[in-house]
Amino acid sequence: MKRREAFHGAPGPVLDLESRSSMSAEKSDQASTFDLEKFRELVELMEKHDLSDVSLKGENQHWRVKRGAEQVIPHYAMPQMPAAAPAPVAPAVPAGGSPAAAPEAANDPNVVDIVSPTVGTFYESPSPDDPAFVKVGSKVSADTTVCLIEAMKVFNQIQAEVSGTIVEVLVKSGDAIDFGQPLFKVKIS
């Protein structure tokens, strides 16, 4: 009595092992023992037909062979950040209280710009209800956070990177800014 065994695999076709001459009838009838030759043939067939999963069923046996690692697709959850509406801001007034003080700051060699390290949206405070991180007259050190820049829904804290006093705020909350754009003028102390 011939035993019909089917070779199933994904993504290839189903193969009928009954027609394979290398599988002898004697080996097929030995259902109770592990047949290393049959296993080797399965592996060869998998390689020959580029199969990743094989199932071999007989009357008394069922073999399943898989090759390759299980494919795991990582799932990344994006943190939810509340959307902050920009707060209305009055135009910045230079340190002297008059618009004439701004040109003086531009000519002073001790005045440097804090520039944007990225493209994004400028925010002067962590939320619309909070006070600005800094304003004209604020003392800052190198690690003082002066603003937030939102880029692709990520809020980046921008540090002063110098010590001194803010003499001018050059942008307002909600402004779109470019890489390298000056944000503040600081008189170095």
UniProtKB/TrEMBL annotation:
It comes from the Bacteria. Keywords: Biotin, Fatty acid biosynthesis, Fatty acid metabolism, Lipid biosynthesis, Lipid metabolism. CDD domains: biotinyl_domain. InterPro entries: AcCoA_biotinCC (IPR001249), Biotin_BS (IPR001882), Biotin_Carboxyl_Carrier/Decarb (IPR050709), Biotin_lipoyl (IPR000089), Single_hybrid_motif (IPR011053). GO terms for molecular function: acetyl-CoA carboxylase activity. This protein is a component of the acetyl coenzyme A carboxylase complex; first, biotin carboxylase catalyzes the carboxylation of the carrier protein and then the transcarboxylase transfers the carboxyl group to form malonyl-CoA. One of its GO terms (cellular component) is acetyl-CoA carboxylase complex. The gene is accB. The keyword Lipid biosynthesis applies. This is Biotin carboxyl carrier protein of acetyl-CoA carboxylase. Pathway: Lipid metabolism; fatty acid biosynthesis. Residues 20-32 have a biased composition (Polar residues).
